[in-house]
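Hi again,

Forgot to attach this to my earlier email, sorry! This is the prediction with magnesium ion bound. I've pasted everything inline since the attachment limit keeps bouncing my files.
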Amino acid sequence: MSNGFLSIEALAKRFPAQNGEGEPLTVFENVNFRIERGEFVCIVGHSGCGKSTIMNVLAGLDEATEGVVIMNGKEVKGPSLDRGVVFQNYSLLPWLSALRNVTFAVEARNRAWTKEQVRAHSYKYLELVGLTGGAEHRKPAQLSGGMRQRVSIARAFAIQPELLLLDEPFGALDALTRGTIQDELLKIWQGTDQTVFMITHDVDEAIYLADRVLLMTNGPYARVAESVEVGIPRPRARDEIVEHPNYYKVRNHLVHFLARRSKEMAGREHATPTGRPETVSFDDPEKERPAPPQAALYAITR
Ligand SMILES: Nc1ncnc2c1ncn2[C@@H]1O[C@H](COP(=O)(O)OP(=O)(O)OP(=O)(O)O)[C@@H](O)[C@H]1O
Ligand SMILES: [Mg+2]
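C-alpha cells for the complex follow:
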C-alpha cells in the first residue's frame, strides 16, 4: 500500500486518574492505519473502545496523547473545512435555523460565492435529506432527533470536504430515511474523489457502504486489529448484495469479531509489535477463514 492520503500513526489516548483516585485509563494505544484517497472506510467496535475519540483526533478537535495523523503529507493540527464532520450528537448551532446552520458552513467554505449561490447550494443538500418545505426555518430545539441528524448530514455534505468524517450518522433515522440517505451518500461519494471515514454499529450498513471495514478490539488498550476488505463490486444493489459470495463471509467475520474476538483479543498482551491491522480478504481462497456457522446467530448488542 502507498503512503496513503491519510495516515494514522501510533495513536494513543490516555486519561490520568481523576483527582488522584482510581487508575489512569489508556483508552487505546498503538493505533495505526492508512486510508487511500477516495476510499470509503467504516470502523466498528464496541461502545467505549474509542471510535469517536479517534474521529475527533482526525477532525483536529481532540488531541491524541501520543502519535500523529498525517493528511496530504501534513500533520493534522486543529480543525479545517477540508474535513467535514457529522458528530454523534449532531452539534448544531442552537441559535441558528436549520438553513442557517448549513449556509454558515457553506459561506465559510466558499468565501467568493454570492448569497444566492450559497442559498441555492445549501437548499440542494437540505432537499437531499428531505428537510425543505418549512422545516429548514426551524431551530434545532424545534426539530426531532432524526431531523437534527439530517441537518448535520446536509451541512457536512454541503461543504464538499476532502475527508468526510461520520460518527454513526444514521443512528437516529428510521429504516426508510436511513436507506435513502445512505444511497445519497454513495451518489455524492461516487461522483467525487472524496474520502469517507465512518463509525457504525450496523454491520450490514458497513458492508453495503464500505470498501474496507476496520475492526477495533475492546478497551482499555483497544486497537485496530483487522482491516476487512469487502470485495463486492460497485454499484451495489441493496436487494442483490446478499447474493454476492462475499456477503455472508464478510458478515459472519464481522459478527464473530464483535461477538467473540473483540473481547478475546483485547488487552495489551495481544498487541502485535507493529500495531498494523491484519488485512483480511475473502477474494483469495488461500486466505479464506470462514467464521463458525453459529456466528450468524449472535445478536450484536451495544
Ligand atoms: N475526560 C475523560 N476522562 C476519562 N475517560 C474518558 C474521558 N472522555 C472519554 N473517556 C473514555 O474514553 C473512552 C472512549 O470514548 P469514545 O466516546 O471515543 O468511545 P466510542 O467507541 O465512540 O463509544 P460509543 O460507541 O459508545 O460511541 C470511553 O471509555 C470513555 O469513558
Ligand atoms: Mg462514539
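Residues 12 and 66 are 5 Å apart (CA to CA). Confidence is low (pLDDT under 50) at residues 292-302.

That should be everything now.

G.
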